[in-house]
C-alpha cells in the first residue's frame, strides 16, 4: 500500500476503529445528498413507470386512430394484423356519457370493446375485482371502482345512460329513451382518476349509444415479443388503407404531453436535490482545508523527507474520494430502505397530517410507486464520488503548493 494512501486512511480513521468528527460529518453530508437523490428519483421514476404500464395495459403498445370514423373495420384491421411485429389488435369506440343511479348522476368516459378480441391486446381481466369479462354483453356494463362507489351502485344495479345522441334526437323532434344497463363487474386499475371515470360496454352497445353504425374510433395493437416499437408503427402506417385516414402512434406518442411533463418534473426534482451533494462538497472542501492548515508542519516534514508534491496532494485527494465512496454506500442503503417502505411512509405522513385523502387525490395512486434503474443508481453514485473527489482536489492543490521549509517554520 502506498504511504500516502495509508496516511489518508489514518487521518480519516486515526485509531483504526474510531470515526473522527470530520469523517462523520463529511460522510453524512454526502450520504444525505445521495439518500434524497435516490428517494426522489425512485418516486418520480415510479410515477413514470406506473403510468407507462397503465397506458400500455389500457391502450395497447400502439394505437391506430383516424381523423374521422373508421367504417371499413375489417379491411383496416386486416392490414394491421398483417404487419410484421404485430401480435394482435382489437377495435374500440369511445366517448362521454351521463350515467345515473337512483338520482345520482356522473359523467364518465365510456369505451366499447370487442369482448372476443380485447383479451389478446389489453389485460382488462387482470384489473377486475368483481365479475368477469365473460359476463359483459350488450345490456351490461363494467364500472371503475371509484365510479361505482360515487354512484353507490354494486353488481346487479341498473344504470340509466344518456349520450350526446339523445340531445341530437331531441333537436330533431325525436324521443330517444335512455339506455338501461346492468352492472356486472367492478374494475380497479389503481389510478384514482381512471377508476372514477371509466365505464366499459360492448362495442355493439357503444355503436348504438353513439349512432356509429358499424364504425369504430380506432384499434389497440399489441406487439409481438422482440418487435421494435417504432419500426412496427412505421410499417403499420405504410399498410393502412388511405381511405381510412388512419395513422398509428406509439403509446408514448399518444401520451407525449403528459409524459413530457413527468420527465420535466423528474429532472427538476433531481436538479434541486443534487444541490445537497454540492453543499456537501463545500463542507468536505472546508474541512480538508482546515486539516491542511492544522497539519502544515507535518506536510513540510513529509516534503523534507522526500515526498513529492503530487504524493502529498494524493493524500488529501484520496480522503475526498473515500468520503465520497463511504457516503455513497450509506446514502444508497438509506435510499433503498426509504423506497422499500415509501408507501408506509406515505400513509404515516397522511395519518399524522390528516391529509390521506388529499395526498391520494393529488398523486392519483392508491399506492405510491417506486422505480429506479441501475443506470440512475450508478449515475447518482458516480456524481457523489466525483464531487467529493473534486472537493479533495482543492485541499490537495493547497497542500502541494506548500514549500517544505516554509511549512516547517509555520506556527
TrEMBL record:
Residues 23-238 form the MacB-like periplasmic core domain. The chain crosses the membrane at residues 21-47, 267-292, 313-337, 380-400. Residues 271-404 form the ABC3 transporter permease C-terminal domain. Keywords: Cell membrane, Membrane, Transmembrane, Transmembrane helix. It is a multi-pass membrane protein. One of its GO terms (biological process) is lipoprotein localization to outer membrane. It comes from the Bacteria. InterPro entries: ABC3_permease_C (IPR003838), Lipoprotein-release_system (IPR051447), MacB_PCD (IPR025857). GO terms for cellular component: plasma membrane protein complex. It is found in: Cell membrane. The keyword Aminoacyl-tRNA synthetase does not apply. The keyword Glycoprotein does not apply. Pfam families: FtsX (PF02687), MacB_PCD (PF12704). PANTHER family: LIPOPROTEIN-RELEASING SYSTEM TRANSMEMBRANE PROTEIN LOLE (PTHR30489). Belongs to the ABC-4 integral membrane protein family. LolC/E subfamily. This is ABC transporter permease.
Amino acid at each position: 500500500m502506498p504511504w500516502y494512501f495509508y496516511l489518508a486512511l489514518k487521518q480519516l480513521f486515526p485509531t483504526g476503529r474510531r470515526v473522527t468528527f470530520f469523517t462523520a460529518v463529511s460522510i453524512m453530508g454526502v450520504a444525505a445528498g445521495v439518500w434524497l437523490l435516490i428517494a426522489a428519483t425512485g418516486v418520480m421514476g415510479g410515477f413514470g413507470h406506473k403510468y407507462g404500464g397503465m397506458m400500455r395495459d389500457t391502450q395497447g403498445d400502439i394505437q391506430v386512430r383516424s381523423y374521422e370514423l373508421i367504417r371499413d373495420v375489417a379491411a383496416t384491421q386486416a392490414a394491421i394484423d398483417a404487419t410484421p411485429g404485430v401480435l394482435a389488435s382489437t377495435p374500440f369506440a369511445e366517448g362521454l356519457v351521463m350515467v345515473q343511479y337512483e338520482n345520482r348522476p356522473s359523467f364518465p368516459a365510456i369505451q366499447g370493446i370487442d369482448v372476443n378480441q380485447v383479451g389478446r391486446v389489453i389485460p382488462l381481466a387482470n384489473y377486475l375485482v368483481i365479475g368477469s369479462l365473460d359476463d359483459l354483453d350488450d345490456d351490461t356494463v363494467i364500472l371503475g371502482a371509484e365510479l361505482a362507489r360515487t354512484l353507490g351502485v354494486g353488481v346487479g344495479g341498473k344504470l340509466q345512460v344518456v349520450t350526446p345522441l339523445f340531445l341530437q334526437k331531441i333537436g330533431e323532434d325525436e324521443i330517444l329513451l335512455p339506455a338501461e344497463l346492468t352492472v356486472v363487474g367492478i374494475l380497479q386499475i389503481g389510478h384514482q382518476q381512471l377508476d372514477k371515470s371509466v365505464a366499459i360496454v360492448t362495442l355493439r352497445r357503444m355503436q348504438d349509444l353513439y349512432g356509429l353504425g358499424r364504425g369504430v374510433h380506432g384499434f389497440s395493437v399489441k406487439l409481438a415479443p422482440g418487435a421494435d416499437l417504432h419500426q412496427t408503427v412505421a410499417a403499420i402506417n405504410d399498410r393502412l388503407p388511405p381511405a381510412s385516414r388512419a395513422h398509428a402512434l406509439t403509446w408514448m406518442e399518444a401520451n407525449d404531453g403528459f409524459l413530457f411533463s413527468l420527465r420535466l418534473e423528474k429532472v427538476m426534482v433531481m436538479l434541486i436535490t443534487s444541490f445537497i451533494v454540492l453543499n456537501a462538497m463545500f463542507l468536505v472542501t472546508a474541512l480538508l482545508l482546515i486539516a491542511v492548515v492544522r497539519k502544515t508542519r507535518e506536510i513540510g516534514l513529509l516534503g523534507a523527507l522526500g515526498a513529492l508534491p503530487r504524493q502529498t496532494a494524493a493524500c488529501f485527494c484520496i480522503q475526498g474520494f473515500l468520503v465520497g465512496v463511504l457516503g455513497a454506500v450509506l446514502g444508497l442503503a438509506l435510499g433503498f430502505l426509504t423506497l422499500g417502505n415509501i408507501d408506509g411512509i406515505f400513509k404515516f405522513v397522511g395519518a399524522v397530517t390528516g391529509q390521506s385523502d388529499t395526498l391520494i387525490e393529488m398523486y392519483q395512486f392508491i399506492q405510491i410507486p417506486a422505480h429506479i434503474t441501475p443506470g440512475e443508481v450508478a449515475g447518482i453514485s458516480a456524481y457523489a464520488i466525483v464531487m467529493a473527489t473534486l472537493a479533495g482536489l482543492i485541499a490537495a492543490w493547497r497542500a502541494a503548493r506548500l514549500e517544505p521549509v516554509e511549512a516547517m517554520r509555520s506556527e
